[in-house]
Amino acid sequence: MSNKAKGSRVERELLGVFSKNGWRALRVAGSGVNDESPCDVIVGKIGRRPCAIEAKSSKKNRIYISKSQIEDFILFANMMGLQPIIAVRFNYEGWIFLDPSLLENSGKNWVVSLEKAKGEGKRFGQFFEN
Questions:
Q1: Which of 22, 30, 77, 103 could make an S-S bridge to 84, C-beta 3.0–4.6 Å?
Q2: Please, are residues 43 and 23 in contact by the beta-carbon 8 Å criterion?
Q3: Which one-letter DSSP state was computed for residue 102?
Q4: Domains observed in the chain
């Protein structure tokens, strides 16, 4: 399975999580492919601030995201009035949600470790239902 196919599968899985919890969610066409779509998913629910989601998954214990991708993502979210959220899924851990400010600077990239995600990130109910 190609990386693009894996990313699409993960994004569809994330859509299902939001839909099961009463949120409306849509995948952004071409996400990760061009500069015109700098987030993966947009979600909203009556009475809640809508969010732009950047979804990442990995078999390893660290996920690296380029600085330019995160800058574009945050700029887009702010321009549209959306709350920027990083959604990460490590194998056998389920989805964890983080504010982008929790990403660590590795020099060339931003990085989130499994340890940091589990320690400072939140599960769906903690992040979206409080």
A1: 77
A2: yes
A3: G
A4: 3-128 (3.40.1350.10)
Is residue 40 within 8 Å of residue 55, measured between CB atoms?
A: yes
Longest dimension (CA), the chain: 39
What amino acid is encoded at 36 in this protein?
E
Evaluate whether 95 touches 121 at the Cβ level (below 8 Å): no
Q: From CA 34, how far away is CA 13, in angstroms rounded?
A: 22
Specify whether the CB–CB gap between 98 and 85 falls below 8 A: yes
Determine the Cα–Cα distance for residues 25 and 59; give it in Å rounded to an integer: 25
Quote the strand ranges of the chain, DSSP E: 24-27, 41-44, 51-58, 62-66, 83-90, 94-98, 104-105, 109-113
For 130, half-sphere exposure in the C-beta direction (CA atoms, 13 angstrom radius) is: 6
Q: How far is CA 87 from the centre of its chain?
A: 3
Amino acid at 51: C
**pLDDT confidence of residue 38:** 85
